[in-house]
Specification:
The chain has 565 residues and is α/β, with parallel strands linked by helices. The chain folds into three domains: 6-52, no CATH class; 59-307 and 418-487 and 495-553, Metal-dependent hydrolases (TIM Barrel, Alpha-Beta Barrel), CATH 3.20.20.140; 315-414, no CATH class. 32% of the residues lie in helices and 20% in strands. Helix 1 crosses helix 2 (119-125), helix 7 (222-235) packs parallel to helix 8 and helix 10 packs antiparallel against helix 12 (342-351). The two termini are 27 Å apart.
């Protein structure tokens, strides 16, 4: 009988602990790393020659929205295609538990516009065999998974469940409601939730409910938020993830909970939604000062280029501007009718100001016209909106909308390649308090592919621009986020640890072109991007991807309280 299930022979080990790289064999048995050193092929059921390849811990992706997708895609792709072996879901206050059976449709509609996944897709792909959060975790545990998973308690569904959707948007909780919500949060933490999350973007958020209104947590009472933080202090565990919160209230949350806060988002220019949250230098100084005062605050950083391929059939990231919401709400016929309305067009033209890419609406002239299904538009493919406007002597807003309307809103528009200030990225990525990523995996997949960030980090930032060495990069992609989010035994290669491993060709690792995949339930599609150069992705000792091909193995686990058992 073989001593090991799998032997990775002679690879270059980068262990995630910032240990200088070294050559060794890595032997795996019973889902764990049994040996790092020397072993013979005769001792293993299978041996893989890893000579010249990097053997490193699988990546830990802390900012995902696979809450629905995991039920029809066990590998949570894009993340699964890019060496990710563990994810956290339930970010930004969003999720599907607790939800009463009669409110399931409303819950899916809430996420339709917000995350750009159609409600019909969610309805076809989700089992909905839960009501409470503990029942949701039990459903996740039963579901086949190709990677490991932690879940926050999203405050939107929790508050809606107790207060009702409209009341939760309009007023603070009563004492009785607050007590019940805290009881349910406590119950969820006991069941294995890793903490709670909230988006706090105020009355004019970019991510909105299906009817164009703000999400519940955007305007929730600070007193309610602090009451939830007190539950974490009582339990002595858990973390808080917030998007867009003020520095003052973030510090109060950290002090009230006695627990770490993961603050989103630190950006050099603008995040995935075209939004800035303050100068990154000021934020880095704030993190340093807060941590020195005993407040454990991590900044989650956008490290992938924010480029988009979108059509006005689904686009929702102009939602901070009421004039654009007026023409991008509703189904396609309604959108088209509104886009033809002269009065609404005039408002769009009046609000237009030429500007940099950081403001998406102001950079409309720079959009390239991509794939079209219209004969009239095919001759425009490859030109920018600005170039067509100059040719046709028309306003750029009219060109943008007329081009979309000529094709039933299906024409694709592509943002120009975004230049990264590499000195700024080097400072941000090397901050002691910054976590790379914000993949948004499972969200906005008709527009962008930032779930590719681990591959882009290793290739564009580390290999091609040397912003840090490979040892530091793997610590930041695996061990550090695992520590921040409460994964108790993941993110490093050491004997006895769960065997979450990625094996890849560093010199030849590369991103592949984006593509449309029609692989979602109910005939839905998504924008995707894969990679070349990954030899093996291993989760709990089993190979899930080999040379880019899925093996069909589903060894992933729900990590209650951040651990396997």
């Amino acid at each position: 009988m073989a001593l090991y299930d799998l032997l990775l022979k002679g690879g270059v080990v980068v262990d995630g602990l910032r240990t200088p790289r070294y050559t060794a064999d890595v032997a795996i048995a019973d889902g764990r790393i049994a040996l790092i050193g020397k072993a013979s092929e005769q001792q293993a059921a299978r041996t893989v020659d890893a000579s010249g390849l990097i053997v490193a811990p699988g990546f830990v992706d802390l900012h995902t929205h696979y809450d629905s997708q995991v039920f029809w895609d066990p590998y949570c792709t894009l993340s699964g295609w890019h060496g990710v072996t563990s994810v956290a879901i339930g970010n930004c206050g969003f999720g599907f538990a607790p939800v009463k059976p009669e409110h399931r449709e409303r819950a899916m509609l809430t996420m339709e516009r917000n995350e750009a996944v159609r409600a019909t897709t969610m309805a076809a792909g989700m089992p909905w065999d839960w009501e409470t959060f503990p029942e949701f975790l039990a459903s996740l545990e039963r579901a086949p998974k190709g990677l490991n998973m932690l879940s926050y308690v999203g405050l939107n569904p929790l508050m809606s469940y107790v207060m009702g959707q409209e009341a939760a948007k309009e007023r603070p909780a009563t004492d009785a409601e607050r007590s019940e919500m805290c009881r349910l949060l406590s119950e969820a933490l006991d069941a294995g939730a890793c903490g709670f999350s909230a988006q706090r973007l105020g009355v004019n958020p970019v991510q909105r409910d299906y009817d164009g209104t703000a999400m519940i947590t955007d305007t929730m009472s600070p007193d309610d938020l602090l009451a939830f933080a007190a539950v974490l202090r009582e339990k002595g565990r858990g973390i808080i993830q917030v998007l867009g919160e003020t520095q003052e209230l973030t510090e109060q949350l950290c002090a009230a909970s006695g627990r770490p806060v993961i603050w989103n988002a630190v950006v050099i220019t603008a995040d995935q939604h075209g939004v800035t949250h303050g100068r990154y230098k000021d934020l880095l100084r704030w993190f340093e000062d807060a941590n020195q005062r005993g407040l454990r605050i991590f900044g989650q950083a956008v490290t992938a280029q924010n480029n988009y391929e979108f059509s006005l059939e689904d686009w929702n990231l102009f939602d901070t501007m009421s004039a654009w919401r007026n023409v991008t709400m509703g189904d396609v016929p309604e959108r088209m009718r509104r886009m033809r309305d002269p009065a609404l067009r005039e408002k769009l033209r009046d609000g237009y100001r030429p500007g940099p890419l950081g403001s998406l609406t102001n950079s409309i002239p720079d959009l390239t016209i991509g794939e079209s299904h219209s004969e009239a538009n095919r001759q425009l493919e490859g030109l920018t909106i600005g170039e067509v406007a100059a040719q046709q002597q028309k306003h750029v807003i009219d060109v943008f909308l007329d081009t979309a309307l000529a094709d039933g809103l299906r024409t694709v528009f592509i943002t120009p390649p975004q230049a990264i200030d590499m000195d700024a990225m080097r400072e941000l990525a090397n901050s002691p308090f910054a976590l790379p990523g914000i993949s948004d995996g499972g969200a906005h997949m008709k527009f962008m592919t930032t779930g590719r960030y681990p591959t882009e980090f290793l290739t564009h930032l580390v290999r091609d621009n040397a912003i840090m060495d490979l040892e530091q990069a793997h610590w930041r992609l695996s061990a550090y986020p695992a520590l921040a989010a409460g994964f108790t035994d993941r993110g490093v290669l050491r004997e006895g640890a769960p065997a979450d491993v990625v094996v890849y060709d560093y010199d030849n690792l590369k991103l592949l072109p984006t593509e449309r995949l029609h692989d979602f339930p109910a005939g839905d599609w998504r924008l995707s991007q894969k990679a070349d150069g990954y030899k093996l992705t291993i989760v709990n000792g089993q190979v899930t991807f080999e040379d880019g091909e899925c093996t069909g193995a589903t060894p992933g686990r729900l990590l209650r309280h951040g651990r396997s058992a």
